[in-house]
């Protein structure tokens, strides 16, 4: 027998309910809200008949304006993910969305627009970011001229503003070979945001730099994130560098394995301190990866026993 609601809900309630349903279908409201959304992302490379599964159903949501670091051992799939998110590569299956752009289905024309206006990049090799025969200011002005967003004096003025913002205004008239590695990378950060992208991707931007210079480059990324509200995703090997952001996700075997969140907490003497908490990542199907030290400490292998307790799940040797 069907039941009829005595007071039918108003339109707003219905709309909210529909949104909730859609969110439930997508695995939770966050999955629809995120600026960058990857859901069950798969990338398989085929070379000479051999298949390599570089991404194995990766789920990731990055909020608008977030500064996120992605860490992981060599071969865990970091570059594969970044190549997909930056529009250079196309995933084999799953969902990858940045703002209104569907990275699986977008046309070649839309892909070009995406790469020119929606996202900016900083690569590890300083030589890949800047043209060697132009000054820092000319380099930063180039994307504006190419995309037609600003020309002549306006482009030069904006280039100078951006160089000042990342602390290398004094390099405006220098060519890359007259700048240090750190100065070149900070200039590359300014260039990457010249056309006001919504998202900035950086692939090992500090990989070729020493620790103190790396901190300066990270400072530039943080400034751009805070001043321009650009969502920033940085891939790095360097765990020290990842300690300078609020959220770090670690990849293992083509999936997210753990996540560290840092939150500010009041201390007893009235100051504030950053507290880091590590979480295992649970995917939509309920899968998670036990940290290797836990597995080793209890010599877990093949199968384990799970017990549901009122407020936790127990994992015991099988
Ligand atoms: N073009 C390709 N063809 C075949 N296999 C590839 C290709 N690119 C990456 N792979 C493989 O996919 C897996 C993930 O590689 P990826 O470069 O994304 O890892 P990574 O975490 O970025 O590593 P690194 O830190 O060394 O750059 C590896 O097993 C790699 O060998």
TrEMBL record:
SpoVT-AbrB domain residues: 277-318
Signal peptide range in chain numbering: none
Keywords: ATP-binding, DNA-binding, Nucleotide-binding, Transport
Domain (ABC transporter) ranges: 39-278
InterPro entries assigned to the protein according to its UniProt record, in alphabetical order: AAA+_ATPase, ABC_transporter-like_ATP-bd, ABC_transpr_LolD-like, MacB-like_ATP-bd, P-loop_NTPase, SpoVT-AbrB_dom
GO molecular function terms attached to this record: ATP binding; ATP hydrolysis activity; DNA binding; transmembrane transporter activity
CDD domains in the cross-refs: ABC_MJ0796_LolCDE_FtsE (cd03255)
A cellular-component GO term for this protein: plasma membrane
Name of the protein in question: ABC transporter ATP-binding protein
Species of the source: Rhizocola hellebori
């Amino acid at each position: 027998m069907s039941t009829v609601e005595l007071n039918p809900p108003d339109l707003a309630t219905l709309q909210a309910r529909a949104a909730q349903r859609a969110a439930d279908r997508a695995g939770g409201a966050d999955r629809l809200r995120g600026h960058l959304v990857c859901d069950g992302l798969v990338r398989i490379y085929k070379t000479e008949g051999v298949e390599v599964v570089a991404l194995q159903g990766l789920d990731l949501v990055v909020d608008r304006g977030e500064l996120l670091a992605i860490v992981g051992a060599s071969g865990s799939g970091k570059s594969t993910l970044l190549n997909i998110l930056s529009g250079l590569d196309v995933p084999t299956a799953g969902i990858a969305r940045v703002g209104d752009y569907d990275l699986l289905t977008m046309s070649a024309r839309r892909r070009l627009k995406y790469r020119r206006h929606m996202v900016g990049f900083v690569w590890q090799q300083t030589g890949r970011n800047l043209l060697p025969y132009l000054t820092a200011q000319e380099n930063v002005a180039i994307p504006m001229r190419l995309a037609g967003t600003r020309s002549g004096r306006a482009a030069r003025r904006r280039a100078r503003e951006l160089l000042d913002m990342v602390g290398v205004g004094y390099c405006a008239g220098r060519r890359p070979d007259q700048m240090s590695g750190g100065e070149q990378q900070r200039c590359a950060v300014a260039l990457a945001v010249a056309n006001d992208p919504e998202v900035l991707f950086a692939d090992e931007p500090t990989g070729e730099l020493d620790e103190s210079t790396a901190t300066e480059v990270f400072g530039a990324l943080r400034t751009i994130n805070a001043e321009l509200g650009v969502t920033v995703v940085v891939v790095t090997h360097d765990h020290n560098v990842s300690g300078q952001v609020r959220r770090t996700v670690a990849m293992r075997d083509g999936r997210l394995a753990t996540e560290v969140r840092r939150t500010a907490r009041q201390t007893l003497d009235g100051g504030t301190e950053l507290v880091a908490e590590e979480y295992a990542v649970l995917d939509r199907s309920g899968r998670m990866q036990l940290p290797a030290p836990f597995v080793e400490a209890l010599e877990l292998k093949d199968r384990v026993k799970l017990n549901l307790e009122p407020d936790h799940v127990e994992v015991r040797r099988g």
